[in-house]
Amino acid sequence: MSNNSESFERWIRTSFVEMNTELEETYFKQERREAVEGVGDAIKTRICGEGHDFIVRLLAEGNTDEGFDNAFDLLGDLGLYLAALRRHELTNPAREEKSPFQEASALGLHIAASVGMAPRFATAHLATRNAAVNGRQKSFTTLKDEFLFLDYNTRGIFSFMRCADALMRILPLGVSHPVTETLLQDAASALRAVIKYNDTLYKELDADRFFYSVRPYYKPYRVGRHEYRGANAGDFSGINEIDMLLGLCQANDPYYAQLLVDKMLFMTPEDQASLRDCMRQRSILAQFLDVAPESAKKPWFKRNAAAFLEVCRLHGETAVQHHDQLVKRFIEKPSAALEADKLAQVTASGPPLPVLLRALETLRDMRNAADRNDIRTSYKEIEALKAYVSA
Ligand code: HEM
């Protein structure tokens, strides 16, 4: 790392976090916690100015050629800075046609083009690739609820990755292999871990603190002329690899394909490659149905297909938990207290809340192979497999 990027990173891990925390405490004491304009202006000016000084030096240095890890970390630091400016209402894409932060935009676009990601901070910066220094990982604030949110997101993401990894290993073995049952049991155990972590998050995260002091850092913002949606815990390939390998979602379904394209640049290049590879594979569900007519009575079929159906059931359960518990408690309910102008700015991905909720509901129903005829689900295929297993 160059001296300039090291100094910027040190600032992001220290003064930046302290100033954000101080602002959050001030906002949170107000009667209308969401009203942040004109509050704490001296601190906001410091965040903006101090960050800008580092960025001008980095831009003049023009050096992103220090390997992927450094460029990736710098992109994250820059993204955290821009997300904080957005959170403190020093910029707002709804009232601007381009980012008022020209130098930060230029630096962001330069690094993003060189690493092959969107020019903003992504989930990986705060989760799976967030290095801790002396026991403290990167964050916006030192609030207990932010660390709870980040660490449980990271645990959930790693567990989904563990499930995807086990499923991928089935492909070269095939559905009749004795070890396939073991891999399916590993996949199931990883999904049980997701359920356990989601449950802890649901019980321990403070809904007001999350909604008013953590979530606002995940709003969309502009870099240059374009607006980029906020990060969310789903921006890693593992979740979609599970969807497609199980055969619950299809890469050629117009709704699901759009989602994959939209999230591509929010993932690390490694995840992008892994997702592309997975899109070419035949699902495990299809492979079981291919051989079912001649093999359904065989003991290996009953054993492996039953283990597969259990993985599908658990995957559906994680989606129900996400939508009916996490999204409901931490986004939908507190949004009801907001006035229309503030509500329009609530969601990280950008669309109005009802549109976002419908999209998440669609995903939940696809992952549960629900009996819906307005969207494509694998209801019939899963029911057919269940019938073969119990025959
Ligand atoms: C997307 C809320 C935790 C996995 C989303 C979205 C919302 C949301 C509103 C839609 C996009 C956006 O606006 O950001 C929440 C809340 C959480 C939480 C309130 C907890 C307080 C988690 C955790 C995971 C997770 C722990 C597990 C890794 C996902 C996935 C998506 C997503 C995979 C992408 C859409 C999908 O494929 O289902 N989340 N989330 N979320 N979240 Fe969460």
From TrEMBL:
InterPro entries: PrnB (IPR015029), Trp/Indoleamine_2_3_dOase-like (IPR037217). It comes from the Bacteria. This is Monodechloroaminopyrrolnitrin synthase PrnB family protein. It comes from Hyphococcus aureus.
